[in-house]
TrEMBL record:
The keyword Membrane applies. It comes from the Eukaryota. Residues 87-101 have a biased composition (Low complexity). This is Uncharacterized protein. It comes from Strombidinopsis acuminata. Residues 87-109 are annotated as: Disordered. The chain crosses the membrane at residues 38-63. Keywords: Membrane, Transmembrane, Transmembrane helix.
């Protein structure tokens, strides 16, 4: 329906009660004593977890920026790794060779 553009001439005669909305309002009012503490608890848990994450994010940014500036200015010499593994490649499987004859067993040598 939406909101009327202008008020009716006789609001008391034209007014109708929307029973669905009234019942929904009463249902919410009945659940309010149980829902409000749960919502407040959820918000507190979220706040308790958000504050340390924000602090750790800021510290990670600061420490990373310091490390980047030290590496960029030549403060630390990054040497080659001490262990260099040899590259390994996959080789095709060898085909089975036929059994070789043994001399003296009725097979041509």
């Amino acid at each position: 329906k939406g909101w009327p553009i202008s008020l009716p001439e006789n609001p008391q005669a034209d007014c109708e009660v929307d029973n669905k909305r009234v019942e929904a309002y009463h249902a919410v009012r009945k659940l309010e004593p149980r829902l409000v503490p749960m919502v407040i608890g959820l918000m507190m848990i979220r706040l308790v977890l958000t504050i340390p994450m924000a602090i750790l994010s800021c510290l990670g940014f600061i420490w990373g920026k310091d490390l980047h500036s030290k590496l960029s200015s030549g403060y630390v010499h990054m040497g080659a790794p001490t262990y260099v593994g040899q590259p390994q490649s996959v080789q095709p499987a060898q085909q089975a060779q036929p059994m070789q004859s043994i001399a003296g067993h009725n097979a041509p040598a």
